[in-house]
Amino acid sequence: MNLNHLFMLRLFIPFCFLLLAMCSSSKTENTVYERIDSTKIAEAFSFCKKNGFDTATCFFVDMSIHSGKNRFFVWDFANKKVLYEGLCCHGMGKGSTPSVPVFSNESGSYCTSLGKYKVGIRSYSQWGIHVHYKLHGLESTNSNAYNRIVVLHSYYPVSESEIYPFHLSMGWSLGCPVVSDSLMTNLDALLQKKTKPTLLWIYK
Fold this sequence. Notes:
By secondary structure, the protein is an alpha+beta fold. It has helices at 3-33, 38-51, 181-191, and strands at 57-62, 72-76, 81-86, 115-124, 131-137, 151-154, 178-179, 198-203.
């Protein structure tokens, strides 16, 4: 191998590593964004605009995702990206398991309810960072949420990072969407700046 070949090789190897890093980054980013169906994003934006909700951001919770993976997403409509994401517990009632959530709108069911919610007022919580937000169910599948005291709050044992292939433990939610303290801190800071209600949509 002559000096010219060695010189070209020294230039080529760093380029290969750079290309590999770019491809890896792009793949990771696309994987995150593909977790939210584009039709859900479009429907959420239309709903927010029509009903006087905040059209800057909304919260998506995809209960079809493994509980050890991030399934709570804060979506930025304008910049078309995820601002924050994290783990989210589901309710423990009616035989719900870590891998198979059971959903219900019944009082006393201790189950998560599917559907769109209006994020309401900020209040004290005995859990997590001691902040919770009232949730108002907007559909027949979650109309009892407020009376059931289903609220958005955190709990300190919820991991700040994904724990897959392990699941979140049961018993940390009686139907509330429960997130980590760090994610709740970010949500709280975001919500306190809002002048219009924020949409939270739990689906599977």
